[in-house]
Amino acid sequence: MTPIDAHNIRDILNAKTLPICQLQQKSNVNEEGYNIIYDLLYWLPSKNEEDWQQNSISLVNLQRLGLIQYGFDTYLIDDIQYKHYDNSNLIKALKNNNQNIELKKGVVEITPYGRQFKIACL
Predict the structure, then answer these.
(1) For residue 91, what are the contacts with CB-CB under 8 A and spacing of at least 6?
(2) pLDDT at 20 over 80
(3) For the chain, what are the domain ranges?
(4) What is the pLDDT of residues 95-106, one digit of tens each?
(5) Alpha carbon 104 to its chain's center
(6) Are 88 and 42 contacting, i.e. CB atoms less than 8 angstroms apart?
(7) pTM of the model
(8) Rounded-to-integer distance, Cα 40 and Cα 54, Å
(9) Is 90 exposed, middle or buried (0-12, 13-18, 19+ CB in 10 A)?
(10) Pick from 55, 48, 73, 75: which is nearest to 12 by CA?
C-alpha cells in the first residue's frame, strides 16, 4: 500500500461514501454514444486537483485489494458533492475546448472487508 492509498482509504473510511466522476465526450449531441476521456476522476476539495491521476490509480489498487468499491450506476443525490469537479481547472479547460463534454457521477464506498481492515489495522 502506498502513502496515497493510505490517505485515500482513510478519507473513504471517514466519509463512508464519496463522489467520483467519469469524463465523457458525446459522439454527437443527438446520439447516445460517447467516448470515455477519463475513466475515474477522484479528488476531494481539500486535496490538490493535479493529483487526480495518482488518486485514480490508488482507487483501482484499493478496489483490487477489496477494501473499496466504486461505480457509476449510483451517485450521491446532493449535487453539491460534485461541484468541485465542475469548478476544477481540468474540467473547465476541456469544456471550453469541446461542448460535448459531460461528467458522469458515481460513488466510491468502503466494503465490508474494508471496514474489518479498519478495525484490525487502524
Answers:
(1) 23, 85, 101, 103
(2) yes
(3) 25-121
(4) 787 778 889 999
(5) 10
(6) no
(7) 0.85
(8) 11
(9) middle
(10) 55
